[in-house]
Amino acid sequence: MTLVLDASVFFAEVPVVGPAWTTPSVVGELADLHAKCRFEALAATMLTVREPREEDLTRVEAAALATGDAGVLSATDRDILALALELAAVLVTDDFAIQNVAHRLGIEIRSIRQRPARAIRWRYRCSGCGRYWLEPGDCQVCGAPIKRKLK
Length: 151
Prior knowledge:
This protein is of the alpha/beta class and 151 residues long. It has two domains: 3-110, 5'-nuclease (Rossmann fold); 121-151, no CATH class. The chain contains six helices and nine strands, in the order βαβααβααβαβββββ. Strand 1 (3-5), helix 1 (7-11) and strand 2 form a beta-alpha-beta unit. It starts with a strand and ends with a strand.
Protein backbone atom coordinates (compact mmCIF):
# COMPACT_ATOMS: atom_id res chain seq x y z
CA MET A 1 0.00 0.00 0.00
CA THR A 2 1.37 3.39 -1.03
CA LEU A 3 1.02 6.25 1.46
CA VAL A 4 0.99 10.03 1.00
CA LEU A 5 2.08 11.79 4.19
CA ASP A 6 0.84 15.08 5.62
CA ALA A 7 3.19 17.13 7.81
CA SER A 8 1.49 15.86 10.98
CA VAL A 9 3.04 12.42 10.38
CA PHE A 10 6.51 13.88 10.88
CA PHE A 11 5.53 15.58 14.15
CA ALA A 12 4.04 12.37 15.61
CA GLU A 13 5.60 8.99 16.28
CA VAL A 14 3.50 7.17 13.70
CA PRO A 15 4.91 4.00 12.15
CA VAL A 16 5.23 4.25 8.37
CA VAL A 17 5.29 0.92 6.58
CA GLY A 18 5.76 0.58 2.84
CA PRO A 19 6.47 3.11 0.13
CA ALA A 20 5.59 6.67 1.08
CA TRP A 21 5.38 9.99 -0.75
CA THR A 22 5.07 13.62 0.21
CA THR A 23 5.42 17.03 -1.42
CA PRO A 24 8.08 19.76 -1.18
CA SER A 25 5.50 22.04 0.46
CA VAL A 26 5.09 19.52 3.31
CA VAL A 27 8.87 19.40 3.77
CA GLY A 28 8.83 23.20 3.99
CA GLU A 29 6.42 23.01 6.94
CA LEU A 30 8.79 20.90 9.04
CA ALA A 31 10.06 23.44 11.52
CA ASP A 32 11.31 21.57 14.58
CA LEU A 33 14.38 19.36 14.83
CA HIS A 34 12.42 16.20 15.68
CA ALA A 35 10.24 16.49 12.55
CA LYS A 36 13.26 17.22 10.34
CA CYS A 37 15.13 14.21 11.74
CA ARG A 38 12.12 11.96 11.21
CA PHE A 39 11.85 13.23 7.62
CA GLU A 40 15.56 12.55 6.98
CA ALA A 41 15.25 9.02 8.37
CA LEU A 42 12.24 8.22 6.19
CA ALA A 43 13.75 9.91 3.12
CA ALA A 44 16.82 7.69 3.46
CA THR A 45 14.74 4.52 3.32
CA MET A 46 11.29 4.71 1.73
CA LEU A 47 10.09 8.29 1.25
CA THR A 48 9.93 10.07 -2.10
CA VAL A 49 9.31 13.81 -2.42
CA ARG A 50 7.72 15.28 -5.55
CA GLU A 51 5.26 17.85 -6.85
CA PRO A 52 1.73 16.82 -7.86
CA ARG A 53 0.46 17.11 -11.42
CA GLU A 54 -1.45 20.22 -12.46
CA GLU A 55 -4.49 18.25 -13.68
CA ASP A 56 -4.84 16.61 -10.26
CA LEU A 57 -4.60 20.01 -8.55
CA THR A 58 -7.48 21.16 -10.76
CA ARG A 59 -9.60 18.17 -9.67
CA VAL A 60 -8.78 18.88 -6.02
CA GLU A 61 -9.82 22.51 -6.40
CA ALA A 62 -13.15 21.49 -7.94
CA ALA A 63 -13.81 18.99 -5.13
CA ALA A 64 -12.89 21.57 -2.47
CA LEU A 65 -15.37 24.03 -3.99
CA ALA A 66 -18.05 21.34 -4.04
CA THR A 67 -17.55 20.45 -0.35
CA GLY A 68 -17.19 24.05 0.79
CA ASP A 69 -13.63 23.53 2.02
CA ALA A 70 -11.85 25.65 -0.61
CA GLY A 71 -11.49 28.58 1.79
CA VAL A 72 -9.71 26.56 4.47
CA LEU A 73 -7.37 24.36 2.43
CA SER A 74 -3.81 25.60 2.16
CA ALA A 75 -1.62 25.12 -0.91
CA THR A 76 0.12 22.29 0.95
CA ASP A 77 -3.22 20.61 1.64
CA ARG A 78 -4.08 20.81 -2.05
CA ASP A 79 -0.67 19.38 -2.99
CA ILE A 80 -0.97 16.26 -0.84
CA LEU A 81 -4.55 15.65 -1.97
CA ALA A 82 -3.47 15.91 -5.62
CA LEU A 83 -0.51 13.59 -5.08
CA ALA A 84 -2.70 11.00 -3.31
CA LEU A 85 -5.20 11.25 -6.16
CA GLU A 86 -2.50 10.75 -8.80
CA LEU A 87 -0.88 7.80 -7.05
CA ALA A 88 -4.18 6.20 -5.90
CA ALA A 89 -2.54 6.19 -2.47
CA VAL A 90 -3.79 6.22 1.11
CA LEU A 91 -3.58 9.71 2.58
CA VAL A 92 -2.30 9.91 6.17
CA THR A 93 -3.61 13.04 7.95
CA ASP A 94 -5.67 14.26 10.89
CA ASP A 95 -6.90 17.40 9.12
CA PHE A 96 -10.71 17.28 8.83
CA ALA A 97 -10.92 19.59 5.79
CA ILE A 98 -8.38 17.45 3.92
CA GLN A 99 -10.30 14.31 4.88
CA ASN A 100 -13.58 15.84 3.73
CA VAL A 101 -12.22 16.68 0.28
CA ALA A 102 -10.53 13.26 0.11
CA HIS A 103 -13.92 11.59 0.71
CA ARG A 104 -15.31 13.56 -2.23
CA LEU A 105 -12.41 12.44 -4.46
CA GLY A 106 -12.58 8.80 -3.37
CA ILE A 107 -9.16 8.91 -1.69
CA GLU A 108 -8.72 6.45 1.17
CA ILE A 109 -7.78 8.09 4.49
CA ARG A 110 -5.79 6.90 7.46
CA SER A 111 -6.11 8.99 10.61
CA ILE A 112 -3.13 9.49 12.90
CA ARG A 113 -4.48 10.29 16.36
CA GLN A 114 -8.04 11.50 15.87
CA ARG A 115 -11.15 9.72 14.72
CA PRO A 116 -11.63 9.81 10.96
CA ALA A 117 -13.87 12.61 9.73
CA ARG A 118 -17.19 11.83 8.11
CA ALA A 119 -17.99 13.43 4.78
CA ILE A 120 -19.79 16.77 5.23
CA ARG A 121 -20.99 19.66 3.09
CA TRP A 122 -20.49 23.22 4.31
CA ARG A 123 -22.81 26.15 3.75
CA TYR A 124 -22.03 29.81 4.19
CA ARG A 125 -24.45 31.93 6.22
CA CYS A 126 -24.41 35.62 7.03
CA SER A 127 -23.94 36.20 10.75
CA GLY A 128 -26.12 39.32 10.53
CA CYS A 129 -29.16 38.75 8.33
CA GLY A 130 -28.99 34.93 8.06
CA ARG A 131 -28.90 34.75 4.24
CA TYR A 132 -27.00 31.86 2.65
CA TRP A 133 -24.12 32.45 0.23
CA LEU A 134 -21.84 30.33 -1.96
CA GLU A 135 -18.60 31.47 -0.33
CA PRO A 136 -17.27 33.28 2.75
CA GLY A 137 -16.64 37.02 2.87
CA ASP A 138 -18.90 39.94 3.73
CA CYS A 139 -22.65 39.86 3.12
CA GLN A 140 -23.66 41.90 0.08
CA VAL A 141 -26.97 42.76 1.77
CA CYS A 142 -26.05 43.81 5.33
CA GLY A 143 -22.23 43.81 5.34
CA ALA A 144 -21.84 41.33 8.22
CA PRO A 145 -19.26 38.49 8.01
CA ILE A 146 -20.35 35.28 6.28
CA LYS A 147 -19.50 32.22 8.38
CA ARG A 148 -19.03 28.59 7.44
CA LYS A 149 -21.76 26.31 8.88
CA LEU A 150 -22.54 22.60 8.67
CA LYS A 151 -25.26 21.84 6.17
